[in-house]
Specification:
67% helix, mainly alpha, Multidrug-efflux Transporter Regulator, Chain: A, Domain 2, 2 strands, single chain
Length: 132
């Protein structure tokens, strides 16, 4: 991810849109979907994004666009991150934390699928025995 620190304290929605290659309406929508994304507002009521907000937006973008998570899946990943990572800590730490949470989530899903398949298999075996 890009490092935006030391350039500006605050960015407008149009600047963030250009920096992240995301349309403004997507940024506004993500604010409603991801509780962690809460840009402030200036006196005129315009959104102002911090470096932390931009890092979070890029993380959400990566989860949704590159890793193909659903919005619900990305929400779960972000909510499972440690608090310091969730608040925009180091980029490498964020990536590692997301990978760890992703791996745990995938492993849990696979275990549930395996359990379900074993159940189906035993049910089929029972049905086959009853038919014979």
């Amino acid at each position: 991810m890009k490092d935006f620190s030391l350039k500006k304290l605050y960015y407008s929605i149009s600047e963030v849109s250009k920096l992240t290659s995301l349309e403004q309406y997507i940024l506004r929508y993500w604010e409603t979907e991801f509780e962690q994304l809460k840009p402030g507002k200036n006196r005129a009521g315009n959104r102002i994004y911090t470096n932390k907000d931009i890092k979070l937006i890029l993380q959400i973008k990566r989860l949704l666009r590159e890793e193909k998570y659903t919005i619900e899946g990305a929400k779960k990943i972000l909510s499972d991150l440690p608090l310091e990572t969730n608040s925009g800590g180091g980029t490498e730490q964020n990536t590692d934390a997301v990978k760890n949470v992703s791996n745990r989530s995938v492993k849990k899903d696979l275990e549930e699928i395996k359990s379900f398949l074993l159940y189906l298999n035993s049910t089929l075996e029972t049905e086959r025995g009853a038919v014979r």
